[in-house]
Amino acid sequence: MSREILKDLNFLFVEDEETIQKFTSRFLDKIVNKIFVASNGEEGYNLYLKNQDKIDIIITDIHMPVMNGLDMIEKIREYSKDIPVIITTAYNETDFLKRSVQLNVSSYVIKPIDLEQLLNSLIKTAEPIVLKRQLDEAHKLVSKNEEYKRLKTIFDSQENMIAIVKDNKITKANKKLYNFFNINNLEELNKNNHIFDYFVEEPGLISMEELKQSSCWAEYIKTLSELDRIVKVENNHKNLKTFSLNIEVYLEEEDSYILTFTDITSLKEKVNLLEYQATHDNLTGIYNRNKFQQVFEKEIRRNIRYKHDLSLIIIDIDHFKLINDNYGHQIGDEVLKAIPMILQSCIREHDILARWGGEEFIILLPETNLENATKVAEKIRIKVENQKFTKRYLDLTSSFGVSSLKEDDTAENLISRADKALYKSKRSGRNLVSTL
User: Domain holding 290: CATH number?
Assistant: First the structure.
């Protein structure tokens, strides 16, 4: 679909950098009906309130003075849960990008803004809006034959997958949907009882159980918040894609709906990747210190509440600096990557392992007392001592500090005791397990 679909739409553009604002505004002004421009989130929010019946799509930067873009969107969502939003973002804005998914952002454009990418995002975001208007016009046609021809033309021009649903069955679908499922006609599409038989059941996605129990699944989806209208669909080739569902009433008197599948696979994958990068150590692939702290705080509260045992092990590779000095950092990195594999082989699936920093690692053992945690540490100590590391067959040892949760402990106290126990092992000659 071309940029022609944008010519009748109005946009709110929020950007604080003057050069970018002027350059992008001039570009948008040539292809859209009207553009409202603001320099920060507060201005954008006020402009929206004054013109909400006119604005079709919002484009906003994230980092801005006075009010950032996502705070603005959150406030606008109080008035409109459905208005499409495109954010302009830097690649490494992990937390902001995660929040943008929660706020049902339609798309994102990497900064510095690529106008071609922006145009593609605008067209894709505008399609459901234009589609609804076109279908409404087509239905007003007197001739049913004319209506069918018009609907088919409209449907097949869409980039999104489109279906019209009536009585829990798909009555019309576009070429994009047929192509995705690798089928040729409606009968093949409806061979299952419902289209949601193609949906994948996963945490955080639309619940298939609740969907199947509802008397009208289209109505059920319509009642969900935008954040909860996410599905993963598997086609006949076992290919998976993630979609955001949009539901609009098509013919109210006939109880039919327009169902639009907007492909957000790349956005979800990007969020997942950024979340992984933010929570995992780049070298070893295990949790980093920040992620461990998050999990640790929750476990502390849970174990104090239910009076369960909880233990902690801190591990330090003995004389690691000599490895780097004598063999180079590449060999040192190979050692650091090998250690977690040994640690994971000695702990349970629900134990938490992380790189604590440098050559130190930390293990959290839920429902484990001091005695059993000490046995785990000793098992690891022996395994490290007996292992030959890297292609140089290096002999290494490690030192351990072990502590367990006490009645009035805080997270800081527990870590502090384990740390002191570790230094006790190091002072006592290394390659030891000490408790405190």
Answer: 3.30.70.270
**DSSP letter assigned to residue 139:** H
Q: What angle do CA 140, 141, 146 make, to 5 degrees?
A: 145
359 catalytic per annotation: yes
Are residue 362 and residue 384 in the same domain, yes or no?
yes
Find all residues with CB under 8 Å of 302, minimum gap 6, and list them. 308
- pLDDT tens figures, 36-86: 999 999 999 999 999 988 998 999 888 888 888 888 988 998 888 778 888
Domain region containing 71: 3-125
- Spatial separation of the C-alpha atoms in residues 409 and 355, rounded to whole Å: 23
Number of domains in the chain: 3
Is 242 part of a structural domain of the chain?
yes
DSSP SS3 for 152: helix
Round to whole Å and give the CA distance between 386 and 225.
Answer: 55
- At 344-368, the pLDDT tens digits run 999 988 899 999 999 999 999 998 9
pLDDT of residue 91: 47
- Among residues 42, 93, 359, 360, the one annotated as catalytic is 359
Domain stop point among 204, 234, 267: 267
399 pLDDT exceeds 90? yes
Asked if the model's pLDDT at residue 103 lies above 50, the reply is yes
The span from the CA of 383 to the CA of 129, in Å, is 62
Q: Is the pTM of this model over 0.90?
A: no
